[in-house]
Amino acid sequence: MLRQKPLADITVRDLTFKADIGYATFFRHYPNLESLLEDVAKEQIDQVIGAVLPVMGTANALDACKALCAVVGAHRAVWVTLLTGGAFDAVKQELLLLSREYAAMQTGLTSWLPPDLGVSLSVSCTLELLVWWLTSPNPDSSDNIGQLLHKVIHERLLISETFN
Question: What is the mean pLDDT of the segment spanning 48-52?
C-alpha cells in the first residue's frame, strides 16, 4: 500500500481490507497505525542488523555499509515511510540502543571521539544520509550509497586522525 499512497492517506479500513483481516482483529494487535509502523520499523531494523552484523564481524566496515544500504534499498518504500512518514524517532532510538550495545562489546577500537558521541553521530549521520538518498529524485545505487556512507562515517568521522 505504501507504494500506492502515502501513510497519511492509509486508513485502518484500507489496510484491513487489503490484508483480508477483520477490522476488530487489527485493533486486537495494534491500538493505531503508528504502533503497527513501529513494529514494521523493528522488523526492518532486525533485517538490517541481520545483514550487517555478520559482515562487521569480519572487520570490513565498507561491506557492512553496503549491506545496510542493500537492505534499505530492497525495501525502499517501507524505509521512505519509516524515515519520512512518522517513525524517524522510533527508528533512531532503536538504532541508538542497538549500536550502543554493539559498541560496548567491542574492544580495541580507537577513535578521537568519545565512544557514546561516536555512536550518536554515526547513527544520526547514517539516518540523514539514508533520508537524503531515499528522497532523492535520481537516487544512486545502494552500492554507491554504501561507499558514501563508509567514507562519511568510517573514514571521516570515526577513524579520523586525532582531534586538533
Answer: 84
Q: Look at the chain and count its residues.
A: 164
- List of E strands, 2-70: none
Q: Which three cell numbers stand for residue 122?
A: 554515526
Cα-Cα-Cα-Cα torsion 123, 129, 130, 136, nearest 10 degrees, comes to 170
How far apart, in whole angstroms, are the C-alpha atoms of residue 156 and residue 71?
23
Is 67 within 8 Å of 55 (Cβ atoms)? yes
**What residue ranges of the chain are covered by domains with CATH 1.10.357?**
39-158
The pLDDT value given to residue 162? 47
- The predicted model scores a pTM of 0.78
Report residue 162 as a C-alpha cell: 586525532
CATH topology of domain 39-158: Tetracycline Repressor; domain 2 (1.10.357)
Confidence of residue 111 (pLDDT cuts 50, 70, 90): low
Contact 69, 145 (CB under 8 A): yes
